[in-house]
């Protein structure tokens, strides 16, 4: 099998399947990395080869999620070669080979920490970017790709094109996010770039800011305030705050662009004030309808 041609054809296949350019690039990098590591032809790889590759990636201290991404990509590639290229080959990436992943709860930012963060953000661009994450639930890549045409300040809404999974959705702009964005747009330098948020210094000045550029700005403010915070934490905070304000779970799902309601349900276990309120409200009714043990009796039982 000509590996180079197979990878080129696989690239075309991914594009026809409407994978994002970012995903296509990552998949090709992973395949090239894997092909260089193998000491044997790609078509002769075995499950033992894959086990050795996993060990190699673990020695490099890659995160288990990253290793699983490698395995998923390689599995998809072998399936493509077998079913699309019609080459009789056995997929060496067996089911169950993926590493077990921890399932940490989404982290939100406390109100006092939000105050601390935004108190040190003086750049109008940065303030607008982070307010869109906090109030509209935008991902970093969605902020990067946001264009002038996608924003309708008059109707207080943003059309997010090609979000995660290639999905479009509509999000809405709160009063404070509106003020931050409107202020930035009034001061935004003239540029041929369609993207809203621009690089302000260096050789790339006037071009759309990158994902890494936005993340580095957050890292700067995190160091300045001493907060353990990331861009994605702002998105989690938006979901948690909406849930605590009694927003429907399905509404939060739509705004965040989650495919599955189970993803959104994770926020129900994170400092859920709604659960706390519902509990005490229900207990008041329960105790009114039953014959609760008096406080004196409870005290006597404890002694």
Précis, in short:
The protein has 303 residues and is mostly helical. 56% of the residues lie in helices and 3% in strands.
Distance between the termini: 80 Å
The CATH topology of the largest domain turns out to be hpI Integrase, Chain A
Q: What would you call the quaternary organization?
A: single chain
Q: Unreliable stretches, pLDDT < 50, 5 or more residues? A: none
Q: How many strand segments?
A: 3
Number of helices: 14
CATH class of the largest domain: Mainly Alpha
CATH homologous superfamily identity of the largest domain: Intergrase catalytic core
Mean pLDDT: 87
Strand content: under 5%
Could you say how many structural domains there are in total?
2
- Outline: globular
- Give me the secondary-structure category: mainly alpha
3D architecture notes:
- By secondary structure, this protein is mainly alpha-helical.
- The termini are far apart.
- 56% of the residues lie in helices and 3% in strands.
- The relative contact order is 0.08.
- The model has no long low-confidence stretch (mean pLDDT 87).
- It has two domains: 3-83, DNA polymerase, domain 1, CATH 1.10.150.130; 111-275, hpI Integrase, Chain A (Orthogonal Bundle), CATH 1.10.443.
- It has a three-stranded antiparallel β-sheet with strand order 1-2-3.
- The protein has helices at 3-16, 21-37, 47-59, 64-83, 111-119, 124-136, 140-144, 175-187, 211-225, 231-244, 249-256, 261-265, 273-289, 295-302, and strands at 151-152, 157-160, 169-172.
- It has 14 helices and three strands.
């Amino acid at each position: 099998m000509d590996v180079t041609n197979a990878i080129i054809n696989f690239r075309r296949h991914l594009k026809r399947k409407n994978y994002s350019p970012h995903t296509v690039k990552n998949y090709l990098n992973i395949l090239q990395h894997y092909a260089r590591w193998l000491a044997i032809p790609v078509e002769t790889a075995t499950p033992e080869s894959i086990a050795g590759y996993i060990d190699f990636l673990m020695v490099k201290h890659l995160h288990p999620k990253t290793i699983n991404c490698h395995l998923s990509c390689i599995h998809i590639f072998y399936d493509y070669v077998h079913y699309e290229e019609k080459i009789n080959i056995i997929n060496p990436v067996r089911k169950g080979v993926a590493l077990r992943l921890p399932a940490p709860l989404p982290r939100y930012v406390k109100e006092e920490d939000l105050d601390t963060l935004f108190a040190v953000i003086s750049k109008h661009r940065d303030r607008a970017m982070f307010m869109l994450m906090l109030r509209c639930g935008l991902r970093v890549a969605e902020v990067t790709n946001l264009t002038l045409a996608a924003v309708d300040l008059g109707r207080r809404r943003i059309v997010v094109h090609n979000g995660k999974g290639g999905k479009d959705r509509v999000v809405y702009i709160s009063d404070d996010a509106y003020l931050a964005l409107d202020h930035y747009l009034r001061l935004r330098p003239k540029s041929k770039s369609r993207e809203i948020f621009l690089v302000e210094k260096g050789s790339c000045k006037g071009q759309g800011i990158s994902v890494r550029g936005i993340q580095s700005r957050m890292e700067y403010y995190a160091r300045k305030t001493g907060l353990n915070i990331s861009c994605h934490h702002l998105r989690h905070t938006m979901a948690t705050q909406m849930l605590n304000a009694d927003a429907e779970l399905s509404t939060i799902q739509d705004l965040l662009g989650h495919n599955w309601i189970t993803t959104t349900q994770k926020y129900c276990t994170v400092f859920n004030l709604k659960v706390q309120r519902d509990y005490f409200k229900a207990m008041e009714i329960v105790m009114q309808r039953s014959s609760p043990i008096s406080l004196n009796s409870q005290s006597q039982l404890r002694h």
